[in-house]
Amino acid sequence: MHHVDRNSGILNPEEKLSPAERRAYQEKFLGEVVELAYTSGTPLKQTFDDTGLKPQDIRTLEDLQKFPILHKKDLSAAQKVRPPFGGFLTVPISTLARIHQSPGPIYDPVGRIPDYWRWKTATYAAGFRPGDLVVNTFAYHLTPAGHMIEEGLLELGATVIPTGVGNTETQVEIIKNLGVTGYVGTPSFLMAIFKRAEDMGINVAKEFKLEIGFLLAEMLPPSLRNRFVDEYHLIGRQAYGTADVGCVSYECSAISGMHVHYDVIVEICDPATGEVLPTGEPGEVVVTTNNRIYPLVRFGTGDLSSIVDEPCACGRNAPRLSRIMGRVDQLTKVKGMFVHPSQVDKVLASHSEIARARLLVERSHDQDVMTLQVELKGPAAEGLVKAVEQTVKEVLKLKGAVRILEPGTIPADSKTIEDVRKWD
Ligand SMILES: [Zn+2]
Question: What is the pTM of this model?
Answer without folding.
Answer: 0.87
